[in-house]
Amino acid sequence: MMGGVSGIGAASGAYTNPALLGMLLPNFNATAYQKAMQVPVTMAEAGLAQLSTQNQTLGKQVSAWQTIQNDLAAVNSAAQALEQSPATGTPVYGKIAVQSSATSQVQATTTHGVAGSPGVYTIGPASGKTAVVLAQDEIVNSASQSSATTGLGLAGTFSIQGKSISVSSSSTLQDIATAINAAGAGVTASVMEPSGGGYVLSIQGDKAGPLPFSDPNGILAHLGVASSSGTPNIVQAYRYAQYSVNGVSVTKGGSNTDASTIPGVTFTLTGTAGATLTVTQNTKAVQSGVASLVSAVNQLLSDAQSLGGKGGLLEGSATLQGIVSGVEQAMGTYQPSQPGGYQSGSQVGLTLSAPVGSPTKLKAALSDTAFSSALASDPGAVASLLGGSSGIATTMANIANEYAGTTGALQQRIQSLQQQQTQVQQQISDPLSAANEAITFARQQAQQDWTALVQALVAQQSQSGILSGMLAKSGGKSSSGG
C-alpha cells in the first residue's frame, strides 16, 4: 500500500486491507481509490526527488570544475618552470653539464640554478710548478701526557683563532679536546695515542691557514702545544692550493674546492696531476620542461573536451571555452617581436593541432628532434620564445593563474556551486522545509480523505443493510398497502 494512505488509524481496523474491504464492500474498488489518493503524495515526493537530483548534479559540476582547476594548476607549474623570471624556483635556461677527464684528480659538479659558460677548461699546475699543489691544513700537537682522563690541575683560559676556551683544575686532556671542539674555533681537536706511549692533544685546522693561539695563563705552554713565547708546535704546516685554469694561475686559501673560477661549476682537486673539464649546455632540462608542459596541456584539453562536449557536465560553458581558446592562442600565435630567429612554437617543434573533421580534439605535440636542433642553434631565442615576457610558457602561466588562482574565475564558480549545494541539501534535510512540509501535508490529507471515504461507505453499507432488514420484515410491501 502506498505511503500516503497506508495507515487510517486503529478505528478503521481491517478497512485498510483492500481484500477485506472488497468483502465488506463488494462494489468498492479500494485499490483504485488508493492509487488516486496517492497522486498528490507522489507529486510532493517528486519535488523532493528533484531536489536530490539537483544536489547530485551540483556535486558533479563542482567535481568537474575542480578537475579543470587541477589541470590548470599543473599547466601553471610546468609553465612557470619555463619562465625566464619564474615566480618560484629557478629557470632551466643556461643550465650546464660538466664532465671530468679524470675524476681521480678533479671532481666537478654544476651549481644548481646557475647559468654557466660551455667550454673546455684545463686544470693543471700553476706557473712555476710541476704539479697541482693541494691545500693542506695546519696541525699542532701537544707534548705527550701520561693520562687522557686524569685532571691536569690547570685553570684559566686560552684562545684559538679568537675563540676562548675555559679550563678548570679538574679538566682532563679529553675534556680540553671536547671544549675546543665545542668552541667553534674552526679546528678539530682529538686525543691520540702515539706508538711510543702516552697521550697527545692534536689540533688540526678545518681549512688551510695558520692557527693563531693566545695563552695568557700558560695552559698551552704547559701542555706543550705552544712554547712560552707562543710559538705553536707545528707538526704539519699549512699550504694553499695552487693550480691553473686554462693557463691562468689560481691560489685558493682554505680548501681544495673552487666554486668561483668556472661559472656555474664547482670542482674539487683530489690529485696533483690535474684534468680537463668539459662544460656543455644541458639541453635535457629545457626539453624535459617543455615535455612536461605539453603533457599538462594535453590533460587539460582532454578533460575540457569530455566535460564540455555534447552531454558533458560543463557543456556550453563560456568559461571553459575561454580557457581552451587562451591555450590555443598561446601556443599558436605568431610573435614577430621575439628576438632571434624563432617567432612561433612550430619553428621549434612545439605544435597544437586537431584531426581533420574534429576541430575540438586539439592536442599538443613536441618534436624532440626539431626542438633539440633549435635549442642547439639559438638557445637564447628559444628561451625568449618560451619564457620571455610574452612567451608561450609565460602566457600559459598567466592564463592558468587567471582562471585557477585562489581568486580566479574557477574558484569563484566552485564556491558558488558549493553554496547552492549547501542550500539544496538544507531543503532536503530540514523537515520544516517547503518540500518536506508539502509531503507531510499531502500524506496527512490523503490519509484523512481515505479514512473519511471508507467510513462513509461503511456507514452507507450499514444503513443499506438496516433498510433491507426492515423491508424484509414488512414482507416487501409498501406502507400504502398498494
Total number of β-strand segments? 17
Helix content: 40-55%
Query: N-to-C terminal Cα separation, in Å?
Result: 51 Å
**SSE-based structural type:** alpha+beta
Low-confidence stretches: 1-15, 478-482
Biggest sheet, spatial arrangement of strands: 1-15-3-11-12
Mean pLDDT: 84
Tell the overall outline.
elongated
Number of domains: 3
Radius of gyration: 46 Å
Strand content: 15-25%
The biggest sheet amounts to: 5 strands, antiparallel
Question: Quick recap of the structure?
Answer:
By secondary structure, the protein is an alpha+beta fold. The chain contains eleven helices and 17 strands. The chain folds into three domains: 260 residues; 79 residues, no CATH class; 98 residues, Alpha-Beta Plaits.
Describe the structure.
The protein has helices at residues 18-24, 30-80, 173-182, 219-223, 283-308, 318-332, 368-377, 379-387, 392-404, 409-429, 434-473, and strands at 96-100, 106-110, 119-124, 139-141, 156-160, 163-167, 187-192, 200-205, 213-214, 234-236, 241-245, 248-252, 257-258, 265-269, 275-281, 350-353, 363-366. With 482 residues, the chain is of the alpha+beta class. The strands form five sheets. It has a five-stranded antiparallel sheet with strand order 1-15-3-11-12, with no helix packed on it. Strands 7-8-4-10 form a four-stranded antiparallel sheet, covered by helices on one side. A three-stranded antiparallel sheet has the order 2-14-13, with no helix packed on it. Strand 11 and strand 12 form a beta hairpin. Helix 2 packs antiparallel against helix 11 (434-473). The radius of gyration is 46 Å and the shape is elongated.
